[in-house]
């Protein structure tokens, strides 16, 4: 009995297919023993003959023929040369669903037929029934007799051998397209995939790693997303009245430059009836409603449209993986969908494979021993790819794919997926307090995933995780990344916990501190003052968080040349820390460093002479030699000595500080750059002009690269170089 509940009677037969097909059922009655051509127009195949032929193998059976094919020049040149040549080649184009493989095949088919006089054959290779029927129809086209075809269809003759015999003896050169060959086992270990001197074979597939693609004479071509300019032009091709190229770039970037998504978006914009969105409005809607709105541009719905819908095309690959015994691939992709489209370090997944991190509540269950096969399955089916980022091996999936998968996670399973994603990130984060180059690199990879998790799963746990990541990014010295991350984190955490929650105030404090480090001193002061006022009202004047705000507020005031006010806030913080946390607490010693730094600007040489050495002794007594505050104390005291003209003493101390900074934090850490600046200025003060100019020129380039060309410190560097050059020419 079929799934439809139908029964055949007598010699009637029901023919069904499955998967991503246009399904036709034929139920015929005929006299026993009747024969005739297998693929004749009026005569029905005998019992057991197999599926009927497709309506055509001479036309590309594609859902939406592309109007203009953008980009792909290099690949089009290679494939064009193949159909212009004598033949004998097999070309496999592989890539994720929606990247334009079929569109490229459609272009090549027309190129081969119209420009090079080849016979074109198009066969749907997504499943064995459609492949066999299509290939036998190709053999019939090339001259196979009805009896031969009936024998092959009935299993009495090797079908693949028959087809390739007639292809090998074709009077005309040909191009054979095997489209949607996403399951290479359908090609039966290579029986259906062969090469011939009479033609060229093009295979389109999502499966990137099949051994079939590595056979002799097979050339593989990876197909990815479009370059930004071409992606934007696709939108303009389809919806020329919806906006200019600049607006199209925004939409294209948000859609990840995926051809299917671009095609659907352009169609939507071009054919709206009740509304008339511009590209800018469409971009805003994507931000509000996610990429789920893209599928509104599809011409219809139904089983046959799965490959034409962004929200459905991935499911075909996941279903195939489940049929192959890897339902865990769906679980893993759902887990990745709660993270960002940025690369995910493979080291993030290792604790799961080792059983060190347990991901409870997921369905299907992601067992440790199944993690690697699931990951390989996603990669094999082009749902994810391996990439290297600064030497770190990562897995990456497309943003539109992740959006659609995340949107499809059942409501009753979202909390479990979010908890699992949070567990992965928590285990992957480095220890707090580290600011080594390795720490900064790891945090740079992990930070986007914390932001994404905040967006798709807003709860207290993800809020705590988001603020922790922001704090660690800032403390690692990657101030530009912290400033980029802070507004999103603040907004998300405020939405979860409320504007006056202590964690929200910490996030805003970090935002203000990042503004200060990136040279936006007035904005930093304003935000620090607001946070200080809230903390003082909610927590009291002697709460540690309030004292943190006092200390932080003093920093932008210092660089805004409001030195007396800066000193007052530093002293209030210092006295509070000593009272609440103790004389030798790290917090008290840290703000004492800041006080030492402002004394030269107030021309308080006597206080510096007293407090500088006292601070160094306190740090040596209470902290390890390599503690960041110990190094900072030496740095600030060396600066004070330099400002008061004690250049020789300052030089020795500053060089020690620079060596410590490089050893502990790397050559490009902002504090290392600050120490480099101090050594250059001291060298200038000692009359070593050429040395000072050389150091400062290199520093200005590095500082501009790390903090930005317009950062006030980078501007000062360039000004010093110009001034010293003038002195040298003197």
* Beta-strand content: 5-15%
Biggest sheet: strands, sense, closure?
A: 5 strands, parallel
Q: Poorly predicted ranges (pLDDT <50, ≥5 residues)?
A: 1-15, 17-49
Total strands: the figure is 8
Shape: elongated
Q: Helix count? A: 29
Q: What's the overall average pLDDT, rounded? A: 87
Helix content: 55-70%
SSE class: mainly alpha
Order of strands, widest sheet = 2-3-4-1-5
Radius of gyration: 34 Å
N-C termini distance: 100 Å
What does this structure look like?
The model is unreliable at 1-15 and 17-49 (pLDDT under 50). The strands form two sheets. The protein has a five-stranded parallel beta sheet, sandwiched between helices. The chain has a three-stranded antiparallel beta sheet with strand order 6-8-7, with helices on one face. With 730 residues, the chain is mainly alpha-helical. Helices cover 56% and strands 6% of the residues. The chain has helices at 73-84, 101-116, 128-141, 146-153, 159-168, 228-238, 245-254, 259-270, 279-289, 310-323, 328-337, 350-353, 368-380, 399-407, 414-428, 437-456, 460-475, 479-497, 502-517, 521-539, 544-559, 563-580, 586-598, 605-622, 628-643, 647-665, 670-685, 689-707, 712-729; strands at 90-94, 119-124, 174-179, 199-205, 218-222, 344-345, 385-389, 392-396. It is elongated. It is built from 29 helices and eight strands. A hairpin with a 2-residue loop joins strand 7 (385-389) and strand 8 (392-396).
């Amino acid at each position: 009995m079929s799934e439809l509940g139908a029964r055949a009677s007598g010699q009637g037969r029901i023919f069904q297919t499955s998967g991503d097909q246009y399904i036709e059922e034929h139920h015929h009655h005929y006299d026993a023993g009747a024969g005739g051509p297998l693929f004749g127009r009026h005569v029905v195949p005998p019992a057991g003959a197999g599926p009927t032929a497709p309506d055509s193998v001479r036309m590309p059976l594609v859902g939406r023929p592309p109007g203009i094919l953008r980009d792909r020049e290099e690949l089009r040149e290679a494939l064009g040369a193949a159909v212009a040549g004598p033949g004998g080649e097999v070309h496999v184009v592989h890539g994720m669903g929606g990247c334009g493989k079929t569109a490229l095949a459609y272009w090549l088919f027309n190129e081969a037929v119209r420009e090079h006089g080849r016979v074109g054959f198009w066969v749907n290779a997504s499943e064995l029934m459609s492949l066999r029927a299509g290939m036998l129809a190709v053999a019939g086209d090339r001259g196979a007799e009805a009896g031969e075809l009936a024998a092959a269809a009935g299993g009495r003759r090797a079908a693949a051998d028959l087809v390739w015999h007639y292809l090998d003896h074709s009077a005309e050169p040909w191009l054979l397209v095997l489209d949607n060959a996403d399951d290479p086992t359908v090609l039966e270990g290579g029986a259906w995939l062969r090469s011939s001197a009479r033609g060229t074979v093009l295979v389109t597939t999502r499966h990137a790693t099949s051994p079939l693609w590595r056979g002799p004479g097979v050339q593989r071509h990876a197909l990815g997303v479009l370059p930004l300019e071409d992606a934007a032009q696709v939108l303009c091709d389809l919806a020329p009245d919806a906006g200019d190229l600049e607006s199209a770039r925004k939409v294209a970037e948000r859609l990840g430059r995926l051809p299917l998504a671009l095609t659907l978006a352009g169609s939507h914009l071009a054919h709206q009836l009740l509304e008339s969105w511009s590209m800018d409005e469409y971009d805003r809607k994507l931000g509000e409603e996610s990429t789920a709105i893209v599928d509104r541009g599809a011409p219809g719905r139904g089983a046959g449209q799965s490959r034409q819908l962004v929200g459905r095309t991935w499911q075909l690959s996941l279903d195939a993986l489940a049929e192959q015994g890897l339902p865990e691939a769906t679980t893993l992709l759902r887990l990745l969908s709660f993270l960002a489209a940025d690369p995910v370090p493979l080291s993030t997944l290792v604790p799961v494979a080792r059983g060190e991190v347990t991901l409870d509540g997921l369905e299907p269950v992601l067992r440790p021993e199944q993690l690697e096969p699931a990951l390989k399955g996603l990669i094999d089916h082009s749902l994810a790819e391996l990439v290297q980022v600064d030497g770190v091996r990562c897995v990456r999936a497309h943003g539109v794919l992740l959006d659609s998968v995340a949107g499809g996670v059942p409501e009753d399973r979202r909390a479990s997926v979010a908890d699992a994603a949070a567990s992965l990130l928590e285990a992957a984060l480095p220890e707090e307090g580290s600011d080594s180059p390795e720490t900064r690199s790891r945090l740079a990879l992990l930070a986007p995933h914390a932001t994404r998790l905040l967006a798709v799963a807003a709860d207290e746990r993800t809020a705590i995780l988001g603020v922790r990541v922001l704090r660690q990014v800032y403390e690692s010295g990657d101030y530009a990344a912290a400033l980029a991350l802070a507004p999103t984190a603040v907004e998300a955490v405020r939405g979860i916990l409320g504007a006056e929650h202590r964690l929200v105030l910490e996030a805003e404090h970090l935002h203000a501190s990042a503004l200060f480090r990136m040279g936006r001193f007035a904005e930093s002061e304003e935000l620090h003052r607001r946070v200080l006022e809230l903390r003082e009202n909610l927590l009291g004047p002697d709460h540690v968080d309030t004292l943190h705000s006092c200390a932080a507020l003093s920093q932008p005031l210092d660089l805004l040349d409001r030195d007396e006010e800066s000193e007052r806030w530093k002293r209030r913080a210092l006295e509070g820390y000593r009272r609440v946390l103790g004389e030798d607490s790290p917090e008290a010693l840290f703000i004492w460093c800041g006080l030492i730094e402002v004394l030269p600007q107030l021309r308080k040489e006597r206080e510096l002479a007293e407090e500088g050495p006292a601070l160094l002794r306190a740090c040596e007594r209470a902290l390890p030699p390599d503690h960041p505050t110990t190094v900072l104390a030496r740095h600030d005291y060396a600066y004070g000595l330099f400002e008061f003209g004690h250049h020789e003493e300052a030089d020795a101390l500053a060089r020690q500080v620079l060596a410590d900074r490089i050893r502990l934090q790397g050559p490009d850490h902002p504090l290392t750059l600050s120490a480099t600046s101090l050594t250059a200025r001291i060298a200038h003060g000692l009359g070593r002009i050429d040395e000072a100019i050389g150091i400062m020129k290199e520093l200005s380039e590095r500082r501009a690269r790390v903090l930005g060309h317009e950062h006030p410190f980078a501007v000062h560097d360039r000004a010093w170089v110009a001034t010293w050059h003038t002195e040298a020419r003197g």
